[in-house]
């Protein structure tokens, strides 16, 4: 899989995309991640990528030309399954969407900044807009990092125990059951006996029931879906 990220602030992405699972995935050649500085596609000597909004609105707007040049340069080299814009008014990101993106070969993520991007980019160049929640960030870089992390861990071979990802919260619209490890008792706090029984049929039934109960109590909206 290849992920190209277009951003005005590449430094914000360098650390999160070179740690932990993402770093191992890159070393295994399971994913290629490229960060593109939007200012490299600016058309003026000041490397400006934003300008005042028509109509007198407050705030600066990312210009259409540098974005178009960046996306066009990438599309000239290969086809892309999705060209994503991180936006507060995009579709709400969830595990189902992460699962879908993980099946693609090539995606572009455009990080928004300032007041946003020229609407013509959204109308003619973007294929999907994604929001990671109902709040506003200074830019789309952190949102892009979250999307990349959630997708990369699903690529076959990235996690050594692939069944681990399949039992994560939200995979079946259920929260994951509680988990425990050694010691079996600590300060009088005991691990549920069923988990120590060795009866995997009972253990699986207990886990399923715990997932349902936790989802009912904490995220009942997931059951409606």
General description of the model:
- This protein has 225 residues and is α/β, with parallel strands linked by helices.
- It has 2 domains: 2-152, SPOUT methyltransferase, trefoil knot domain (Alpha/beta knot); 167-224, tRNA(m1g37)methyltransferase, domain 2 (Trp Operon Repressor, Chain A, Orthogonal Bundle).
- The protein is 35% helix and 19% strand.
- The chain has 9 helices and 9 strands.
- It has helices spanning 11-14, 20-27, 64-75, 95-101, 119-124, 141-152, 162-166, 200-218, 220-224, and strands at residues 2-7, 32-37, 50-52, 60-62, 82-92, 106-111, 128-131, 185-186, 189-190.
- The strands form 3 sheets. A 5-stranded parallel β-sheet has the order 2-1-6-5-7, with helices on both faces. The chain has a two-stranded antiparallel ribbon with strand order 3-4.
- Helix 4 (95-101) links the parallel strand 5 (82-92) and strand 6 (106-111).
- It is elongated and about 70 Å long.
């Amino acid at each position: 899989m290849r992920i190209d990220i277009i951003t005005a602030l590449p430094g914000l992405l360098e650390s999160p995309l070179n740690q932990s699972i993402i770093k191992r995935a890159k070393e295994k050649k399971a994913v290629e991640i490229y960060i593109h500085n939007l200012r490299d596609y600016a058309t003026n000597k000041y490397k400006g990528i934003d300008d005042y909004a028509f109509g007198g609105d407050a705030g600066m707007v990312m210009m259409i030309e540098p974005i178009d040049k960046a996306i066009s340069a990438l599309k000239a080299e290969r086809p892309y399954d999705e060209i994503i814009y991180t936006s507060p008014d995009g579709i709400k990101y969830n595990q189902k969407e992460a699962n879908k993106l993980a099946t693609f070969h090539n995606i572009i993520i455009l990080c928004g900044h300032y007041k946003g991007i020229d609407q013509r980019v959204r109308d003619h160049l973007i294929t999907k807009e994604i929001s990671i929640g109902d709040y506003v960030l200074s830019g789309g870089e952190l949102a892009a990092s979250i999307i990349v992390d959630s997708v990369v861990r699903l690529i076959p071979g990235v996690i050594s125990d692939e069944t681990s990802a399949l039992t994560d919260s939200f995979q079946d619209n259920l929260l994951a059951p509680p988990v425990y490890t050694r010691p079996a008792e600590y300060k009088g706090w005991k691990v549920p006996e069923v988990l120590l029984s060795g009866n995997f049929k009972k253990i699986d039934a207990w886990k399923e029931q715990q997932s349902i109960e936790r989802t009912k109590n904490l995220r009942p909206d997931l059951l409606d879906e």
